[in-house]
Specification:
Layout lengths: L3 E5 L3 H11 L4 E5 L2 H10 L4 E5 L1 E2 L2 E2 H9 L6 E6 L4 H9 L4 E4 L4 H32 L9 H13 L6 E4 L6 H10 L8 E5 L5 H9 E2 L11 E2 L1 H4 L4 E5 L6 H10 L5 E2 L8 E2 L3 E6 L3 H6 L5 H7 L2 E4 L10 H15 L6 E2 L1 H9 L5 H15 L4 E2 L6 H7 L22 H15 L4 H8 L3 H19 L15
Parallel strand pairs: 1-2, 1-3, 3-6, 6-7, 8-15, 8-16, 9-12, 12-15, 17-18
Antiparallel strand pairs: 4-5, 10-11, 13-14
């Protein structure tokens, strides 16, 4: 499909001349006035608009302003016989890409249109890339509706617009890097780079070079100057993963660059450089304990720990597992070109009861395994990884029965199914403790007992299975 160009001029010979010039390479439209031009712009997606400044008694700048408000705004080029710096500046201020003076230099017009189209392609690619980044790293990827996760998401929304350093703590696989990306994307620096450094993967010398860069000849093998990650992240965000792994020497240099000075030197260099960065660090270690053991500098810890966000382990938010499972099923079904979009009740129960030492990352891998191994339209218990199947399938914890009566695919508007789902999730999260589950649900113990009895009665009637919700015995009298 050829790019589209709209030529707007009240002089017929100019319209015809430009159409003849551009018609072989582009799909060209012409208009003599603003209204005719707007009719074309609203009907067809125009890539480049070339308009005269004077359109009879009308103003071409008005057309540019209105064109730029359309859903598919074109790149705009102004033509004027009144070629002055003031006119050019005003056109640019109102959103014009460039301008050209009359009488027209046809070679310049061709070059200008080609450049404008290149600019439009780049803008589209950037929008597409931004959308992909947002889809991959937005808050929506921190899936779940548990209290623990909602608190994390609320904190992220609160702190993201600030310039404060953030320390993300949590076990491996809890989503610390996703949280870091979300903070960057919600910050004022979202148009800048997001630069990641995995500190544990590099030796102390390589880490220092990676962070701060090095000059040619700084050490054996340094054949040319290298720009470090802090310089690369200038104007954006730097994410230091596994910050607890850095050695004492690098800690000292890191302290200086994240202080108010934001100053550092490349390895082997003497020039002091400064980086305008927002720092997010992550660790699966207890840095406070490391400070008390003198394994981590206390002054660096306090610099990093302006705002601490603790990512909850998956075992602390098991009510989020069904939602995560559905999301991973969709993803891996598409990725593997499989039609496996459901999971059996016993497989789901096993996933809920398993403790997930590898957290969301391990669950994600388990669902990928299940999709690949599935022979039907559903992931079954036998399709799960052996470690999950054996550890999670032996017995359900008290409070979570192998309930089959409620439809896992029920509409969110099905109040009965939704109520059952929420009750089961609360019982799972509290390991069947009625008092804790009732508190989590915001209802009384008596009400929760009644609802569970109703669920069991419904299950008996529908399947006559004999299975009931088993509750954790509570020794206290109520």
């Amino acid at each position: 499909m050829q790019p589209t160009v709209l030529i707007v001029d009240d002089e017929k010979h100019t319209r015809d001349g430009l159409r003849s010039l551009l018609g072989n390479e582009y799909d060209t439209y012409v208009a003599a006035d603003i209204q005719s031009a707007l009719d074309v712009l609203e009907r067809d997606e125009i890539d480049v608009l070339i308009t005269d400044l004077r359109l009879g008694g009308e103003d071409g700048m008005t057309l540019i302003e209105r064109a730029l408000k359309l859903p598919h705004a074109p790149v705009c080029i102004m033509m004027t016989a009144y070629g002055s710096v003031d006119t050019a500046v005003e056109a640019m201020k109102r959103g014009a890409y460039d301008f050209v003076t009359k009488p027209l230099n046809l070679d310049k017009v061709e070059i200008l249109v080609a450049r404008a189209l290149g600019s439009r392609r780049l803008e589209r690619e950037n929008r597409s890339l931004r959308k992909q980044v947002d889809e991959r790293f937005g808050l929506e990827n921190l899936l779940g509706d548990s209290v623990a996760l909602r608190e994390v998401l609320d904190t992220i929304r609160q702190v993201a617009p600030s310039s404060a350093n953030i320390l993300l703590e949590g076990e491996s696989g809890t989503g610390k890097e996703l949280a870091a990306h979300a903070i960057h994307n919600l910050s004022r620096r979202h148009n800048g780079k997001f630069v990641t450094v995995h500190c544990a993967a590099l030796s102390p010398q390589l880490l220092e070079s990676e962070l701060f860069g090095h000059e040619r000849g700084a050490f054996t093998g340094a054949h040319e100057r290298r720009i470090g990650r802090f310089e690369q992240a200038n104007g954006g965000t730097i994410f230091l993963d596994e910050i607890g792994e850095i050695d004492a020497s690098t800690q000292v240099k890191l302290l200086r660059v994240i202080s108010e000075e934001r100053a550092f030197e490349r390895v082997g260099g003497s020039q002091t450089l400064r980086a305008d960065i927002r720092l997010i660090a992550a660790t699966n270690k207890n840095l406070e304990k490391m400070v008390s053991e003198e394994k981590f500098r206390d002054d660096l810890y306090f610099r990093l720990n302006v705002v601490k966000i603790t990512m909850p382990p998956l075992r602390a938010r098991k009510e989020d597992i069904p939602l995560l499972v559905r999301s991973f099923l969709r993803h891996f079904s598409r990725a593997n070109e499989r039609d496996v979009l459901d999971i059996t009740a016993d497989a789901m129960n096993t996933l809920i009861t398993y403790d997930w030492p590898g957290n969301v990352r391990e669950l994600r891998t388990a669902i990928e395994h299940g999709v690949v191994m599935a022979t039907g339209a559903k992931v079954t218990l036998r399709d799960l990884p052996p470690a999950v199947r054996q550890a999670g399938g032996a017995a359900l914890p008290a409070g979570v029965a192998r309930v089959k009566a409620f439809d896992e695919k029920a509409s969110p508007l099905d109040l009965h199914a939704t109520e059952q789902r929420v009750i089961l999730q609360a019982l799972s999260a509290t390991k069947g403790n009625i008092t804790a589950a009732a508190k989590k649900l915001g209802i009384s113990r008596r009400t929760l007992h009644r609802k569970i009895n109703e669920m069991n009665a419904c299950q008996d009637r529908s399947e006559n299975s004999g299975e009931t919700l088993q509750l954790e015995s509570e020794s206290r009298s109520h």
